Amino acid sequence: MLDRLGHRPGVIVTGWILAAVLAVLVGVVGIGIVGAGLTSRQGTPISEEDVRRALETSDSPSASPSASPSPSPSPSAQIGESPQTVQSFVTDGGTVLASCAGIESMSPAQGYSVHEQSAREGEFRGTRDNHDRVKVELSCSGGVAHLRVRAEGD
User: Fold this and answer.
1) Range of the domain at 128
2) Distances from the Cα of 56 to the Cαs of 44, 45, 62, 70, 79, in angstroms?
3) 64 domain residue, yes or no
4) Is the pLDDT of residue 41 over 90?
5) The overall pTM is greater than 0.70
6) Which of 46, 81, 85, 93 is the most exposed place for a label (fewest CB within 10 A)?
7) What keyword terms does UniProt attach to this protein (predicted)?
8) Residue 43: is its pLDDT beyond 70?
9) Alpha-carbon distance 70 to 138, whole Å?
10) What pLDDT was estimated at residue 63?
């Protein structure tokens, strides 16, 4: 059976159906291969007891799970520490990591950026108008790093 143009409509329809079925199968297989991680339950939460057990068996020298992090160590905890002990100092402009050897890094708080950083001093500036400034100056006495903070602004 031929149509007006001499084509066989049954063959054309069958070809389109086969092409559609093949496209769906390729899509399903592709999604199955690529998306295996999207539907799997590998990211299920673990219990507090599992975390505690994992921390106890860990070989890394990390803080105990019951210890709460403090923004800056207390002076009594710093006595007897080596001059290379890095301490964290939280300021309005951001966080400064420093030891007696110098300022290791400066991480700005939201709304601030690091404007200057050297071994002994640095400055955070407000990102809106550069008028808000937090200047930090590092000193060391008795093997303990101290950070002097000066805030300047309008």
Assistant:
1) 75-152
2) 21, 19, 10, 21, 27
3) no
4) no
5) no
6) 46
7) Membrane, Transmembrane, Transmembrane helix
8) no
9) 19
10) 45
